[in-house]
Amino acid sequence: MSEINSRRPLAVFDIDNTLSDTDHRQHFLERRPRDWEGFFGAAPSDPPLARGIALAVASAADCEVVYLTGRPERCRADTAEWLTRHGLPEGRLLMRGNQDRRPARTTKLEVLKRISRGREVRMLVDDDELVCEAARAAGFRVVLADWAADAPELKTAQEGEGRT
Predict the structure, then answer these.
(1) What residues form DSSP beta bridges with 144?
(2) How far apart are CA 124 and CA 56, in angstroms?
(3) How many CB atoms lie within 10 A of CB 72?
(4) Which domains, from first to last, does the chain contain?
(5) What was the pLDDT predicted at 136?
(6) Among 24, 70, 98, 143, whose CB has the most other CB atoms within 10 angstroms?
(7) How far apart are the first and last CA of the chain?
(8) Which of the two residues, 1 and 34, has the higher pLDDT score?
(9) Do residues 109 and 134 touch, judged by C-beta distance below 8 A?
(10) pLDDT category, 124, cuts 50, 70, 90?
(11) CA-CA distance, 41 to 43, in Å (whole number)?
C-alpha cells in the first residue's frame, strides 16, 4: 500500500449495499436463526454497484479513500480481495471486531470521530439511514447510498444484532 498523505481529506465508504450488492445473499438473513456464516461466506460473489464504485473512484482524485464496514474482522481477506478485483482505490479497511455486536450507527460514528481527529472527512457514503442520521448529527457530510435494492432484513440486523 502506498504511503498515506495525511493532508488529503478523507472520503469514507461503507461496502455492503453501497459498493457491493448484497441482494443475492439476503436469504441467509431471512432464516431464524440468521445464517451469518452463509451471509458473509457469500460476500465474495457480490456484484459491484456501479454508482458507488464510480463515486469511490472519483473521490480518490483528491481524497484518501477509507472503507468503513460493519463486516467482522474475520472477513478481511475476502473483503480486501473483492475491493481489488472490482478496481476500487487503495485505502484503509476498517472493520468491526469479531465479537462487536453494537449497532452500526454506534460503531461507525465512533470510528468516524477517531479518524477525523486532525483530518477533514469530506464525506461518509453509507446506505444505512440510521448511520447517516447519526453522522450528520455529529457534523459529518453524508451521502446516502440509495442505489441498492431495499434490504429490510439487513437493516434490521445492522441495528438489532450489530452484525454488519
Answers:
(1) 126
(2) 11
(3) 20
(4) 10-160 (3.40.50.1000)
(5) 98
(6) 70
(7) 25
(8) 34
(9) yes
(10) very high
(11) 6
